[in-house]
TrEMBL record:
One MF term in the entry's GO annotations: aminoacyl-tRNA deacylase activity
Record family assignment: Belongs to the class-II aminoacyl-tRNA synthetase family. Alax-L subfamily.
Record protein name field: Alanine--tRNA ligase
GO CC terms of this entry: mitochondrion
Subunit note: Monomer. Interacts with ANKRD16; the interaction is direct.
Job of this protein: Catalyzes the attachment of alanine to tRNA(Ala) in a two-step reaction: alanine is first activated by ATP to form Ala-AMP and then transferred to the acceptor end of tRNA(Ala). Also edits incorrectly charged tRNA(Ala) via its editing domain.
Cofactor(s) the protein requires to work: Zn(2+)
Organism: Gadus morhua
Entry EC number(s): 6.1.1.7
Gene: aars2
Catalytic activity: tRNA(Ala) + L-alanine + ATP = L-alanyl-tRNA(Ala) + AMP + diphosphate
Record note on cofactor: Binds 1 zinc ion per subunit.
Root EC class: ligase
Length: 479
């Protein structure tokens, strides 16, 4: 069909390649090459960072890139761009997704970039302009960055209605790759899934009714290690359009999970589960929980398959540790909520591969590697919670680690089990529930909890667990 994932991806590439003289460059693997600032590839521009910085070997092929198009495998489960906590809870964030992108390296700039994006969406994909909103950077006095009035005028000239062009600040409209790296003001295109009303107040609020589709970044600076902004040697354009979100629009669905990238996988999960079929609910309550589990398992198994195929397997530190948490969550949700048998995850891999067929050159070997690896890990993974006789770690100790140091509870459980311990889950649940009731009270540690911290850290140390970093989520090293 016209708007199958395969056709939609190809239409994007053809538009830039054939109509606008861009060179197609294949996706890089999800493991970043020679960039210690990243856990996973989190955007299409990662592999082109040296070009943006003016740091590319002049003899290399990359040095000749002026206009480029691709569809990049991205993982956002750690570091600056981390969507792990939203996955499953909402219907448009994934840990693994495809970012289709177009670039100008010192070639065209804002005007052409906006015109191309608008033409592709409205003429080639046939979207109605009265479902679209665009944003521009409103400036930031503290960092001395001016408002991007130029982009506002470009959208007006293209014919976008005045009240559909919205200003936003640093958070939404100044894109940065990580704590350091290329960055610049951006302009985004958002889609109103309902229509027939003024949806401008919903843009950038996290509402599933108005979803961000495409980000056009005007790369002009590098964020240095000391936090300052250094102007780049040339002005470049870097755009990213989420394939799954675009498909939801074109296939007339409200949710990414109802598109042809997910439906076969959700059907397969249904076959191995002992629950009713996927119902698409995001509400709290039992049914919402089952549907969330469907989304988590579908998302995570895609991420696991793609990462393993690209050489990142669940392991002990860095991206491998992140992947281990993802595996652990997938196993949890599939066995505990969906009641699938142990080992079910591995059996889903062929469906993932079948859906993502266009991403891979060597289908068979990926199928086999991911399948075997997942099957192996899935079999040897943790004992059933509550069913083992492992010694208990006191719940308040786990709780205080979590609350005072932000240590993720599932990671803690994982570490403990591998060291022959488990958390006293019953008591921990009580503590969590009690805290939930206290609700909005500030999370100040009580004296006894603070006391426990010292205690806890000492006991963790004894067990050889080192807590190396307190701020960035999910970046822990085990020694
Ligand atoms: P959001 O605000 O929705 O989290 P973002 O601003 O973080 O998105 P960008 O960094 O601008 O996203 O990435 C470019 C595009 O990639 C987005 O406009 C969106 O279409 C897509 N995208 C980003 N994160 C995800 C994700 N976790 N899952 C699926 N698509 C995503
Ligand atoms: Mg985001
Ligand atoms: Mg955004
Ligand atoms: Mg964005």
């Amino acid at each position: 069909t016209k708007f199958s994932s395969k056709n939609v991806r190809q239409t994007f590439i053809d538009f830039f390649e054939q109509k606008h003289q861009h060179l197609y460059v294949p996706s890089s693997p999800v493991r970043p090459r020679g960039d210690p600032s990243l856990l996973f590839v989190n955007a299409g521009m990662n592999q082109f960072k040296p070009i943006l910085l003016g740091a590319v070997d002049p003899r290399s092929e990359m040095a000749r890139y002026r206009r480029v198009v691709n569809s990049q495998k991205c993982v956002r489960a750690g570091g600056k761009h981390n969507d792990l906590d939203d996955v499953g809870r909402d219907i448009y964030h994934h840990t693994f997704f495809e970012m289709m992108g177009s670039w100008s390296f010192g070639d065209y700039f804002k005007e052409e970039a906006c015109a191309m994006a608008w033409s592709l969406l409205t003429e080639h994909y046939g979207m109605s302009p009265d479902r679209l909103y665009v944003s521009y950077f409103s400036g930031d006095a503290a960092s001395g960055l001016p408002a991007d009035e130029e982009t506002r005028h470009i959208w007006l000239d293209i014919g976008v209605q005045k009240d559909r062009i919205l200003p936003f600040g640093l958070q939404e409209n100044f894109w940065e790759m990580g704590d350091t790296g290329p960055c610049g003001p951006c302009s985004e295109i958002h889609y109103d899934h309902l229509g027939g009303r003024d949806a401008s107040p919903l843009v950038n609020t996290g509402s599933p009714e108005v979803v961000e589709l495409w980000n056009l970044v005007f790369m002009q600076y590098n964020r240095e290690a000391d936090g300052s902004l250094r102007p780049l040697p040339q002005q470049s354009v870097d755009t990213g359009l989420g394939l799954e979100r675009l498909l939801a629009v074109l296939q007339d669905k409200r949710s990414n999970y109802d598109t042809d990238l997910f439906s076969p996988l959700l059907d397969h999960i249904h076959q191995v589960s002992r629950c009713g079929p996927y119902g698409g609910r995001v509400a709290p309550g039992l049914e919402g929980r089952v549907d969330m589990a469907y989304r988590v398992v579908a998302d995570h198994v895609r991420t696991l398959a793609v990462c393993i195929a690209d050489g990142v397997s669940p392991g002990m530190s860095g991206p491998e540790l992140v992947l281990r948490r993802i595996l652990r969550r997938a196993v949890r949700f599939s066995t505990e909520v969906l009641q699938a048998p142990q080992g079910a995850l591995g059996s889903l891999v062929p469906t993932v591969v079948q859906v993502l067929v266009s991403l891979y050159a060597d289908l068979d070997s990926i199928n086999t590697t991911s399948h075997q690896e997942l099957a192996r890990i899935n079999q040897t993974s943790h004992p059933e919670p509550g069913s083992s006789n492992l010694p208990l770690m006191a719940a308040p100790v786990a709780w205080s680690l979590h609350r005072n140091l932000g240590f993720p509870l599932d990671l803690l459980q994982l570490i403990l089990e591998e060291r022959g311990l488990q958390v006293d889950q019953v008591l921990l649940d009580q503590l969590l529930a009690r805290n939930h009731k206290r609700g909005s009270e500030p999370a100040v540690a009580s004296e006894s909890e603070t006391h426990l911290d010292v205690h806890t850290l000492a006991s963790l140390k004894q067990q050889g667990i080192k807590h190396t970093d307190q701020s960035p989520k999910y970046q822990y090293n085990l020694h």
